[in-house]
Amino acid sequence: MPSSDAFFYSVIVALFTVAISSMGLFTPKWNPKDKHCYVTGGSTGLGLSLAKILVKNGAHVSIVARNQEKLNQAIAELESLRVSPAQVIKSYSFSLTDAAGSGAALDAASEPFEGRVPDALFLCAGASRPRFFIDDDTEALERGMRDAYWIQAYSAHAGIKKMVRQKIPGKIVFVGSMLSYMSFMGWSNYAPGKHALRGLADGLASECQLYDISVQMYFPCTMETPGYEEENKLKPELLKKLEETDKGMMPEDAAKAMYRGSTYYVFPDAAAPPSVDQVATWLDRGASKVVVSLALAKDLLGLISPEKLVLLLDTGSASAVTDKIRATVSGVLLKTAAVDTDLLESIKQFFKGLSFYVFPSAETLPTTASIQALKQLGATLVVPSSQLTLSSTSSSQLNIGDAFVAPLTSDRPDGLFPTIVTAFNLGGRSLGLVYSSKESITESICTGKGVYQSRKHGLWRKGETSGAVQEVVSLSADCDSDSLQFSVIQHGTGFCHLGTNTCFGELNGLPALERTLQQRLQSAPQGSYTRRLFEDSKLLRAKIMEEAEELCAAETKEDVAFEAADLIYFSLTKCVKAGVSLADIEASLDLKAKKVTRRPGNAKPQWTQPEIPKSQPTVAKMAPTHPTAPGAPVATSNADNISMRTVDLSSCSRAERAQLLKRPVLKSDEMIAQVKPIVDEVRTRGDAALIDFAAKFDRAQLSTTVISPPYSPESVELDPDIKNAIDQAYANIYKFHVAQAEKAPLVVETMPGVTCTRFARPIARVGLYVPGGTAVLPSTALMLGIPAQVAGCKEIVLATPPRPDGSIGPEVMYVAKLIGASAVLKAGGGQAVAAMAYGTETVPKVDKIFGPGNQWVTAAKMLVQNDTDALVSIDMPAGPSEVLVISDMTGNPAFVAADLLSQAEHGIDSQVVLVAVGLTDERLAEIEREVDIQAHALERVEIVRESVRKSLIVRVANDEEAVTFSNDYAPEHLIIHLENAQEALKSIENAGSVFIGPFTPESCGDYASGTNHTLPTNGYARQFSGVNTLSFQKHITSQEITKEGLRNLGPVVITLADCEGLQAHGNAVRVRLAVI
Questions:
Q1: Are residues 812 and 911 in the same domain?
Q2: Which position among 972, 977, 1002, 1013 bears the catalytic label?
């Protein structure tokens, strides 16, 4: 029995660019691979063309028709297309014009599958006999209904009953025609059946949802089939004359239109989480994006481009997304209980720059008002396909047309929407400009035909009188939702009323060549060269190979264009002969572009014969003067290179130089406004708010918010290697920070009898924020906790987000024990900052808050420090991580590159600068080659690619220029690879931390050398120091004055007080002097 994949496709209904599913029978929810597809009328025409596509896409196919000879020919064609030896491809000869024959055919097709009904029924069988009504007898009228309606209705009846009985979530596809919607003279015995078939399909579309059976209908235009040729023999002459301009479409094109599906995302079933390889497979098969869980997103870091991934979250897990995870996806799909725009807007601020999808879990049907609200928010509504319908909107289903028009707005007095009509099969060529109304849009969506709004005559059903009808492939709104684009397949004489293909003149370029070749294939005169190419395959192959070789040999721009044109002509001739259109080629290119797994791309052996090289001067190869990174492959030049932008400082104007020093602007006001409601909640509700936020953002059900010492042995149990590493880091950091502490008060006698003193006191209560979420950061706990411990802070509150089970990671708990933390607060984000700033029932209020965090944490810190009720200060403003590396010719390219990348991997907004001191072009190329090689070896290569792309190489002439630029830039981390590094250090004025020499990587300072890694960014190194022991202390001054001292100093003070008009100040001295 054919297997089924353990996932389902969910239709993502984008309200701004919508591909209407009724025009593609293979919607994103359904994949034909390994499915059993039953095709009636499958021996010729549309049925056979569709069967071919199904076979190519890995389906098991059964075709049914009456003529056994034609079935045999069809099976031979299908067998030649199979993609797997396991595919079942069968044919059955039955008459389907009665219930018995239809049931027997379906039973026969089910036998190879142990009686299991086919997964999908494509009902293409039917026949027409065009005549005038008065020329038909009653038997002909009855036969017309049988061949147009019952021949499909009987098969659908038998198939649906089997699907329901066997509980198969199947698919039924009826094939109608344009006569299902409108009729013409001569079709009176056929159109009624097609109208009835459309009514049956509409009714079953809603009824069969009870059984998880999808019902759709396709409405092709006139097709050039053997059946159509027979019809023409029966047509009255008058009818032939009326239809002579109606050019039929080929059945292959109709089948492709049936198969063509919308752009789709894969939404895996949570019960069967996919592997990394499965995600890659879905993308390779054509999925635009895959929706992934937070856990899977971490596994995909650096493996798949962010534009291919959407992160699945609920409102409770939004705060757990770190900057690193956010940089690995292009969007977020948020599952919510309902459409709460205030909540969604606050969460969306956390994901700026990413697409935002909202999937309400409530059973309530989305309203047009909620769709409009989401559109204004810049969010895309996700609607289960079970809630969508082509019928009228009801209490349980939303009409797709209503959903599409809901967010549209018109800036015209008449309320119409300017509409550009483009040709899908002509590379998107514009056909003309029309207008649409909400009524015409809805009808076009529901019928799949081009329907517009005439400003004079009302609804305009394109081709209703001329026969130049349109199949609509997709509708999309522009960025302002006030104008539209219809992508269509145009039939008949063309779009323009003047009989041309477009309203902008005749076709040219490749579409014109394609049209000419298609015409020549049908009617090229005997002896013409094009006809000769169509008939002589060997000649056509030889010309393609000849032109390809001439293109490879061409050198000038003109020659390359000339030879490419010849090659395209012969290649397109091959394509047209094989029934391949430009649209097919474009579709293949689009599918290739979606692939994420790449083949090596090597040429086949017959094309890799070595050429005899031209005589070249001999050049002695020099051994590299610096080692390459261990195990690094040889670099090759390709478009995938990861490289930095280079500028020469000597050629920069003052304005350009100032621009080099800038960082991204942080919109702190916006973030403060977003985090304020969270802070206010904690301030007013205390622990209850913390518990609610833990459930909402951390998915943790807490009973208490604080862990107090003594900490249990199991909570601090660690792997011995990790424990030893933390212990060594603790020792180094403690040693350096204890040396910073003041040993004695500063005492100065400023004048005889006047002694001034300054002494340090610890800040009594401090709060340390240690980020959590998807990362464990014991290093940050050490960097903040040790100087607090050394300074003698009496109360140390360590805050970090809880894990889903409500616990804190043992690494952080072990550090909390080492530093003597008085409390561990199980909270993250703005709520943790608020709890420490104001205090709660169990969380002690602190006097100063330290620590890095995401934009929510930074905004909350900035908010509370300006609130006089909080009476709390913070360590420093925060921004993206940054490094500036200064290197001359003594710098090791591999080391320099590694230093740059160590910061570039933090996030796509990391700031990385190389100041190149007198480097030659060759040495600079070595460094860039090392950056590319090492970056490609990293798991986070995609993040590095983005950050490096925005990074900078600044070329300077000497050390002095380099140091001057560095001081102006004021980097967080400064790394010096100079021959006279210690001498350069004497001139460094602005930097968070400096790393000197080839064996001092910044990573050591981040973890364990002893210096602190909490440093000023964004140029704040001009004003701020990094966190140190003094950050956790305050200085108090005192003075003691003797009688002699006051006698000497008093007159000075009285004079200055009188000068300022502060009489009481002077009087405080006078009363004392009076008694001396």
A1: no
A2: 972
